[in-house]
Amino acid sequence: RGLLERKGFPESYDRRALLRCIQAVKSGVPEVRAPLYSHLVYDIVPGAEVVVRQPDVLLVEGLNVLQPARPRSDGRQGLAVGDFFDFTIYVDARTSDVRRWYVERFLSLRKTAFSRPESYFRRFADLTDEQATALAGQIWGAVNEPNLVENVLPTRGRASLVLTKDADHTVRRIRLRKV
After folding, report:
1. Alpha carbon distance 66, 12 (integer Å)
2. Are 103 and 122 part of one and the same domain?
3. What was the pLDDT predicted at 81?
4. Cα(110)–Cα(29) distance, rounded to whole angstroms?
């Protein structure tokens, strides 16, 4: 669907499927199945799935899980995935720190996951530090930062708890909304 350059943006997720999955778990369905996503191959693994069997606690992690509901075609407000969460946590940090962490992670992954033959990112494993730093900066500027600013940061206010991290990853502030 031409969404590779929009990977991580809300439109790149099957929000309806995620909503159905969360609704089923929350409703007590004995067994709920969901496709398995692999960061290594950068896609859903064909034929692989995650099976959830009435958990006491279910952790759902993602950039866009606190997105508000989309308006329905009939003008009424739909449901949001976050409507089914009992408690939500938003991990916050300065954008400049998040950018630096992204570039550092990109550089370190060249020696681990990127070097695996089946990795989608294999083509980046042999880049020099300078090339990798430049490419990570380009990806950050074209994809990650716009998604952060346009879609992720605006959801911060929907969280029950906001943990604000400093540059060294320590939590410097904790903000708990009345629950």
Report:
1. 15
2. yes
3. 93
4. 41
